[in-house]
Amino acid sequence: MVSVKNFGEYKLFVIENGGCTAAVSDLGATVQSLLVPDRDGETGDVVLGYDTPEEYLFSDGFLGAFVGRYANRIAGAHFTLGGRDYALTANDGRNTLHGGGCLSFCRFGTEVLGDGVVFTLRDPDGSCGFPGNAEIMVRYTLTDDARLCIDYSAVSDADTVFNLTNHSYFNLRCGGDILSQELMINADRYLPTDAELIPTGEMSHVAGTEFDFRTLRPVKYGGIDNCYVLNGDLCAVVYDPVSGRRMTVTTDMPGVQLYCAGMLGERKGKHGAAMGVNSGLCLETQLFPDSPNRSEFPSCIFRAGEVFKSRTVYAFDTL
Q1: Quick one: residue 297, left, alpha or beta (phi over 0 = left, psi -120 to 50 = alpha)?
Q2: What distance lies between CA 37 and its chain's CA centroid?
Q3: In this predicted model, what pLDDT tens digit does every residue of 274-310 receive, in sequence order?
Q4: What gap in Å lies between CA 176 and CA 20, rounded to an integer?
Q5: Which residues form the catalytic set?
Q6: Residue 19: which region, alpha, beta or left (left: phi > 0; alpha: psi -120 to 50)?
Q7: Which of 34, 111, 194, 319 sits in a 20 to 30 Å window from 120, CA-based?
């Protein structure tokens, strides 16, 4: 069931199914809340966010937002395609982060379809420096077996780059920090970065490092902001021993960025809840950062008329 509520000058689309409730706004196609039951059947909000659209519009951190055209970082805010250099919006020092932030604050078109909502946007040629007029779609569906499915597609009338994801911060305990919550990432390798968090081009093994989440273990260290090279469709598992909530993430993307809110400044969220460093963890399924400048990484180039498609599923249960 989908209902619509006013959200200031925007709308909230409230999807209820499988004992869960997701609220997604046409402002940035943002996941504003996600209510999931614990082992005792009590629901709690497992994503960080705000009560008003103004807080989303004037705050950093991309809480719950759809991000594109290119998620994560592009070094030097530029790339070359077809012999032409494209200068992008620099919003992370001298680099571009999450496409320069252009799409995360747009009003999307909407259509309710079954147990979900389709959000659409036409992004013009040159938006934040990216080439081509792009037609972008993201669909959120909540199934009767408690799975939040996110489907992405995009196409451009010129050769361009795409890398779309969602930037929800998850906290399965619905408060406090995430350091004692348990995490598994299905990856043997990760991408080391330089001082500006740009990949060096290496793919290093996680064995013997703080990046090793091949078996379920407490997060412990919240400073990670790195992309992992996934072994297959199973991406990650998050488990909170206190509430019993478990989240299993699957995707068809080759990588996932683990970000534990290490740079999230202190602020107030929904209902005045305190948020800050280590308040949530992001599992941003994606192509690799800086791929437009890295021929050794999987290609992110989409020719005119070629469709980018991707699906990520967040499945919830309890133990």
Answers
A1: beta
A2: 22
A3: 999 999 999 999 999 999 999 999 999 999 999 999 9
A4: 21
A5: 167, 284
A6: left
A7: 34
Q: Is the pLDDT of residue 138 over 90?
A: yes
User: Residue 95 and residue 86: Cα distance in Å, rounded?
Assistant: 13
Q: What is the C-alpha to C-alpha distance for residues 30 and 64, in angstroms, rounded to an integer?
A: 5
Residue with tokens 């940035």, as numbered in its chain? 28
- Parallel, antiparallel or unpaired: strands 73-74 and 96-97: antiparallel
Tally of residues, the chain: 319
pLDDT tens across 146-197, in order? 999 999 999 999 999 999 999 999 999 999 999 999 999 999 999 999 999 9
Give the mean pLDDT of 81-94: 96
